[in-house]
């Protein structure tokens, strides 16, 4: 038996890794973001508001042949297993059992390796990019040139963070800037990426503007930086991370590939640490650095017997923690709210709610996660009406709101239950629901105007343009009784201070061509931003403009 394992350890390791992920995929409830990306796959496009399209494509492939949670996760799981295999190929000196020990010590690869999120294809194409780069360094053939360009494009189609990988590889080897074939590889990647760039152009570069100016911009807190460092130690562990990160940083590279890996690991770690001064950074944003961390830590531990012994001693603890957490993800045995909400809150009640709502379309208020999960577990088309105070998401762009305009729906929410006709108890909270015989919200109508600067005693006069899609315009013209209010809300950072109703309604905008208004903000000196919102049936206001900067002098 021992000889058999010694001879066939590699297929045994990878088959076991894949089968465990397969079981986890089948029996673990879909997570919020996975359900959201599943909705992406129903509207395949070259781009989306907050992400490139790779994850949507992978899910679409899986759901074409299968159904349920496994359909969503199958291709990401295959890529996760392939990522580990390719990463092993990147180690210059082979020590497979040390490599297995390191991989098994990085618990996130096991616990999250089957989840259908953009980090999975990003890590796969990161590992593949370094393998192709390794081959290119050995032989700059035209095949390797085209492969470099192709994989670089796939990286960019996976997640925008891919730009950092390409940047740090070039910085690690500035001679690439004098290599004509690298420019050809870059042009090929750009050519493949043109459909996405054209999509961005058609949508006014919305993803770039969102990620640079709207997403995660908050006043600095020291906890952003300390939580980031702790999160990185845990994501590369949770136990071994306390020396795998140092090991990867301390290793002295011996060739250009290892130098590129070192630049990537250190560069990504430092880049996102600096980003904590702008706002909160999620631990998984550094996921592509895990590939470099594993390779560099492997090379370092080969030379350090003491470090290697500690890794082996701590490995059983990590494995036990992973087994325990795998069990908790499948079986509802821990009453902690965070665990229940993430893994066990959607069992049974969606089907009961589907019966009560007679299979009609559903509107969730201001929660794309619940809307996406409900849609997945019931098959009922579900819309998330995003409030003025919150950020937009893809429900603002998909043809969902317009398809239910003026039609009967049920509105669901977990807040202010007294306004609903009835409610249903779920494992975590009560969900109120009420019938709306003719639903109206107008989030696809977008107002635009310029930045404004006024004196604290002056009135604010705004000239605006408005994009009213033809379907909405026709509907409003045919239904003059539908006449929602419009408001202008004032924000300090992310907090809404107050709002004022405009002296005209949406019907006035459509019928009378009003494009100007004045009001008195009554704000002290400072910098603010404003948003315009249109009333929806729920009494809330939808998100109908981008941030509009206001300076009060």
In short:
The protein is of the alpha+beta class. The chain has helices at 2-27, 32-42, 54-65, 68-89, 96-105, 107-111, 119-138, 142-158, 162-172, 180-202, 206-214, 222-235, 241-250, 256-275, 289-302, 305-330, 337-343, 349-356, 368-378, 401-404, 470-478, 506-511, and strands spanning 361-365, 382-385, 409-413, 422-425, 430-436, 446-448, 452-454, 460-463, 465-467, 485-492, 495-505, 516-519, 526-534, 548-552.
Q: Which stretches of 5+ consecutive residues score pLDDT under 50?
A: none
Number of strands: 14
Strand content: 5-15%
Largest sheet: 5 strands, mixed
Radius of gyration: 26 Å
Structural class: alpha+beta
| Mean pLDDT across residues | 94
The coarse overall form would be: globular
CATH superfamily of the domain at 446-552: Immunoglobulins
Strand arrangement within the widest β-sheet reads 2-1-3-5-4
Question: Which fold name fills CATH's third level, the topology of the domain at 446-552?
Answer: Immunoglobulin-like
**Which range best describes the helical content: under 10%, 10-25%, 25-40%, 40-55%, 55-70% or over 70%?**
40-55%
Termini separation: 80 Å
CATH architecture of the domain at 446-552: Sandwich
Count of helical stretches: 22
Query: CATH top level of the domain at 446-552?
Result: Mainly Beta
């Amino acid at each position: 038996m021992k000889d058999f394992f010694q001879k066939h350890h590699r297929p045994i390791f990878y088959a076991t890794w894949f089968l465990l992920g397969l079981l986890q995929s089948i029996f673990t409830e879909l997570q919020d973001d996975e359900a959201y990306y599943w909705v992406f796959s129903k509207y395949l496009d070259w781009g989306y508001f907050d992400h490139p399209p790779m994850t949507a494509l992978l899910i679409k492939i899986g759901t074409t042949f299968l159904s349920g949670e496994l359909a969503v996760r199958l291709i990401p799981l295959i890529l996760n297993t392939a990522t580990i295999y390719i990463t092993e190929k990147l180690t210059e000196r082979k020590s497979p059992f040390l490599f297995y020990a390191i991989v098994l010590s990085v618990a996130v690869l096991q616990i999250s390796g089957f989840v259908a999120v953009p980090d999975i294809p990003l890590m796969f194409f990161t590992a593949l990019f370094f393998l192709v780069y390794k081959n290119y360094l050995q032989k700059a053939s035209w095949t390797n040139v085209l492969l470099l360009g192709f994989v670089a494009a796939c990286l960019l189609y996976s997640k925008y963070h891919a730009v950092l990988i390409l940047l740090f590889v070039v910085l690690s080897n500035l001679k690439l800037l004098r290599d004509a074939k690298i420019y050809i590889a870059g042009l090929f990647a750009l050519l493949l990426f043109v459909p996405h760039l054209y999509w961005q152009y058609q949508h006014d570069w919305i993803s770039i503007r969102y990620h640079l100016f709207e997403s995660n911009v908050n006043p600095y807190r020291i906890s952003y930086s300390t939580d980031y460092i702790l999160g990185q130690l845990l994501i590369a562990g949770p136990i071994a991370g306390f020396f795998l990160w140092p090991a990867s940083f301390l290793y002295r590279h011996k060739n250009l590939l290892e130098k590129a890996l070192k630049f990537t690991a250190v560069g990504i770690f430092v880049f996102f640490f600096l980003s904590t001064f702008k706002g909160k950074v999620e631990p998984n944003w550094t996921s592509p650095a895990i590939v470099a961390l594993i390779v560099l830590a492997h090379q370092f531990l080969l030379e350090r017997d003491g470090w290697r012994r500690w890794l082996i001693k701590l490995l059983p603890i990590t494995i036990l923690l992973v087994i325990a957490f795998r069990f908790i993800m499948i079986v509802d045995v821990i009453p902690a709210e965070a665990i229940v909400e993430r893994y066990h809150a959607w069992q049974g009640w969606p089907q009961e709610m589907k019966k009560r709502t007679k299979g009609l379309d559903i509107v969730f208020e201001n929660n794309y996660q619940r809307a996406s999960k409900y849609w997945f577990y019931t098959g009922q088309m579900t819309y998330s009406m995003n409030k003025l105070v919150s950020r937009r998401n893809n429900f603002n762009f998909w043809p969902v709101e317009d398809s239910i305009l003026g039609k009967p729906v049920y509105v669901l929410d977990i807040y202010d239950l007294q306004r609903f006709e009835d409610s249903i108890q779920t494992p975590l909270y009560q969900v109120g629901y009420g019938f709306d015989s003719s639903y109206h919200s107008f989030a696809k109508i977008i107002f635009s105007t310029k930045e404004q600067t006024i004196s604290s005693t002056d009135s604010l006069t705004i000239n605006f343009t408005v994009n009213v899609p033809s379907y909405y315009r026709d509907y409003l013209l045919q239904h003059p009784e539908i006449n929602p209010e419009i408001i202008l809300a004032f924000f300090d950072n992310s907090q809404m201070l107050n709002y004022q109703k405009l002296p005209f309604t949406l019907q006035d905008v459509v019928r009378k061509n009003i494009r100007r208004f004045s009001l008195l903000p009554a704000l002290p000196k400072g910098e603010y931003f404003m948003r315009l919102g249109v009333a929806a049936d729920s009494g809330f206001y939808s998100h109908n403009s981008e941030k509009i900067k206001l300076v009060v002098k």
